[in-house]
Amino acid sequence: MTNNNFDTLQKEITPLREQLINHPVYQKTKTLDSLKIFMQHHIFAVWDFMSLLKSLQQHLTCTTTPWFPKGNANTRFLINEIVTGEESDVDQDGNRSSHFELYLEAMKQAGCNTQNITTLVDLLKKNFSVPVALQKCNAPVGAMHFVENTFNTIATDKPHIIAAVFTFGREDLIPGMFINFIAEIKKQFPGKVDIFQYYIKRHIEVDGGHHSHLAYEMTKELCGNDETKWKEATLAIQDALHSRIQLWNAIGHEIEKVTVQELA
């Protein structure tokens, strides 16, 4: 029954996934300036991905002291494996780095403005709430709404929903077409997108391959044969994919605005 539910879920979310994979924002992101706009929005999704991941780890493993066994050992292994890869991967020089920190370095190399996202992190360290910190750091509106959706998912406090959104709404969505246009930008602006190119390749290699398979197993494990959980998971994924489409729409709109200003 679980495999049937899994297949049904994949079928029901396919139209939204196709919209994302074929979204026009990829065609619009053809220059270094448009890539900067993309990165300055997307970094918020890179950041809140880690919050989604860590909320799963808190649900599925023991992260407090004194320690005690919690949940299923299979699921513990899956989530810890993914956390290790996301929180302490290697950069292009072989140094340990989280994917968020790697993305920040890519932004700096490309000449992006990192003030909004670094201010957000600083405010959170000072115990401001996420909504207040987003407002105070002047996060782009599209990115702000996306992060709010992510934290609404976390707030459900339901591991099967968080795992499903993590698996199908985040892990393997960046398409291979990114590689092609980054290679073209690299030719035009040597030394500006090398780190970002590495990040995308690494993301596709690790997140879109090994981690995706681990996440599929985790979702199956958490939903089991419970029809209600599978329905809740499907609805949550669809909501998350809608949220990503809206973020991509917002980025595309910002790129268009800048293009029009440049032509004026």
> Main β-sheet, in a few words?
2 strands, antiparallel
Rounded average pLDDT: 90
What structural class should be given to the helix and strand makeup?
A: mainly alpha
Rg over CA atoms, rounded to whole Å, is 19 Å
How large is the share of residues in beta strands?
under 5%
Distance between the termini: 59 Å
N-to-C SSE series?
Answer: HHHHEEHHHHHHHH
Number of strands: 2
* Widest β-sheet, arrangement of strands: 1-2
Count of helical regions: 12
How helix-rich are the residues, as a percent range?
over 70%
* Poorly predicted ranges: none
The global form is globular
Task: Give an account of the 3D structure.
The protein is mostly helical and 264 residues long. The chain has helices at 2-21, 25-28, 32-60, 73-87, 99-110, 115-125, 130-136, 141-155, 159-169, 177-188, 194-223, 227-263; strands at residues 89-90, 96-97. The chain has a two-stranded antiparallel ribbon. Helix 3 packs parallel to helix 8, helix 5 (99-110) runs antiparallel to helix 11 (194-223) and helix 9 crosses helix 12 (227-263). The longest helix has 37 residues, at 227-263. It is globular and about 55 Å long. The N and C termini lie far apart (59 Å).
Show the helix and strand layout.
Blueprint: H1 2-21, H2 25-28, H3 32-60, H4 73-87, E1 89-90, E2 96-97, H5 99-110, H6 115-125, H7 130-136, H8 141-155, H9 159-169, H10 177-188, H11 194-223, H12 227-263
Helix pairs in contact: 1-12, 3-4, 3-5, 3-8, 3-9, 3-12, 4-11, 5-11, 6-7, 8-12, 9-11, 9-12, 10-11
